[in-house]
Amino acid sequence: MSSARGVxxxxxxxLLLESHASxxxxxxxxxxxxxxxxxxxxxxxxxPDCWARASFKSGRQAEGGNRLTPTQIRNPPVVTWxxxxxxxxxxxxxxxxxxxxxxPRFREFIHWAVGNIPGNDIDRGETLVEYLGAVTPRGTxxxxxxxxxxxxxxxxxxxxxxxxxxxxxxxxxYFSTRNxxxxxxxxxxxxxxxxxxxxxxxxxxxxxxLRECESEREFDWLVQ
Length: 224
Hints:
The protein is α+β, with helices and mostly antiparallel strands. It has a single domain, classed as PEBP-like (Phosphatidylethanolamine-binding Protein, Alpha-Beta Complex). The protein has 5 helices and 8 strands. Strand 5 and strand 6 (126-129) form a beta hairpin. The longest helix is centred in the first third of the chain and has 22 residues, at 3-24. Residues 1-21 form the signal peptide. It comes from Anopheles maculatus.
């Protein structure tokens, strides 16, 4: 095969991959995807109007229920959405399937929360909960990881809320997306996405880095 032909084939493959990803994340499919995986009603009452794009350093991205490994999502994703320059956004990444989807008695487990994000610039937002990758226990099957982006026009006051570091684990349990959004009147679910993950060996590495944090009584905003 000539080098020129190889380049042409590579370009065609990349275009096909881009087209495939665009088709998967077609906004017309949002409602159906969130309902078919029961994100509605397990986490939220209504699906967002459009997809948020979440791309991980591993090269993988969230595609509305696709399977990613804990190793692939070890680092926080780059998340983008069609933002309004006059608005602010609050982002939540939560796992409702704790310890498992069949037995979600610790629902939900909050993996990431950033408030008052200008546009898509998450680094300029207010981090409430630092990103923590998957700590899904062995034998608990697939967990849904749900990413939600809420739009609001005014800056919200999160000064009374705790800040949870990446080293804190159990204190993240019992988060309630519904209670949190009700408390801050986050009524405009602007964009979202989700994927599934289950145990791999990287979970052991991540769990070994966790430590005991403050009493859960200090984190009442997480409790249903």
